[in-house]
Amino acid sequence: MTVAVVGTGIIGSAWAACFLAAGHDVLATDPADGASERLAASLETQLDIATELSGRPATSRGSLRFVRSLEDAVRSADFVQENGPERLDHKVALLAEVDATVRPGVIVASSTSGFAPSLLQGSCRVDPGRVLVGHPFNPAHIIPLVEVVPGQATTTAHADSALDFYRSIGKKPVLVRAEVPGHVTNRLQAALWREAYSLVDRGVATVADIDTAISHGPGLRWAVVGPLTTQHLSGGEGGMRHLLEHLGPPTQKWMDDLGEPQLTPELTDKLVAGIDDEMAGVDQAGLVADRDRLLVDIMRLKRSSHHLP
């Protein structure tokens, strides 16, 4: 199978690693100067990790070819993953060009973090029903989640095919059943960020304290079973119902008291100063390497379990 990767920045290169590790051939394209060299440099580390997670031998990897022409990249593709800049006008024009070139029935998935697929389909005149969102999470060559978001014109068959394809390369796709800004997971993140920003703004906690509170507290549990199952398990034999009967009223009070911060220049300065303090003396490249290695280890342990959902 041949996959076209349109745009080879941080997300595009990670997608390329995933597809190659799964044994698919990749046709990559990006108009930026030096894009081919940057892609090769990124794949030096990403591809080894993606191959490790795939469980396949390195000898089964697909082939990579970088082409300058968008038409050359997508003309013979069996699946297209678009990763252009997060600008609506740019994506709409890019996807219209892809739609006009790819073969009939080929799914065109956009990695957009928040644009509604119906907006992206608007200028696709040939077959808007095959255009949808396939949103990954950084680092995309490690994190298995992909949000598949159909638009108004997307057919059920194409949405199902996209879900099946992502599963076939080892991803964990979820179907987003309605178009909302930011899809699902970015909205969940935004809810946490909102209160984190508010707590910093009010002087309740520092940036470093908030990072510690999540990464050494609920974040550890969420990485295993997610926040709602965590609640269910906290309810013991009575499960979620028991928990909500006992902790529902105080939880409602906490939710009612959550802040509504505005990202003013002053709050932005507070957040930047806080992260600068937290990162002082930290080898950020080493931090990223440690993060990625631990994520790989977590993924391996999760896959060896027998009862996790």
UniProtKB/TrEMBL annotation:
Signal peptide: 1-16
Swiss-Prot/TrEMBL keywords: Oxidoreductase, Signal
GO terms assigned for molecular function: L-gulonate 3-dehydrogenase activity; NAD+ binding
Start and end residues of each 3-hydroxyacyl-CoA dehydrogenase NAD binding domain: 2-177
Pathway assigned to this chain's UniProt record: Lipid metabolism; butanoate metabolism
Ranges of residues in domain 3-hydroxyacyl-CoA dehydrogenase C-terminal: 182-259
Organism domain of life: Bacteria
UniProt xrefs under InterPro entries: 3-OHacyl-CoA_DH_NAD-bd, 3HC_DH_C, 6-PGluconate_DH-like_C_sf, 6PGD_dom2, NAD(P)-bd_dom_sf
BP term (GO), one: fatty acid metabolic process
Coiled coil: none
Family to which this protein belongs: Belongs to the 3-hydroxyacyl-CoA dehydrogenase family.
Protein name: 3-hydroxyacyl-CoA dehydrogenase
Lineage of producing organism: Bacteria, Bacillati, Actinomycetota, Actinomycetes, Mycobacteriales
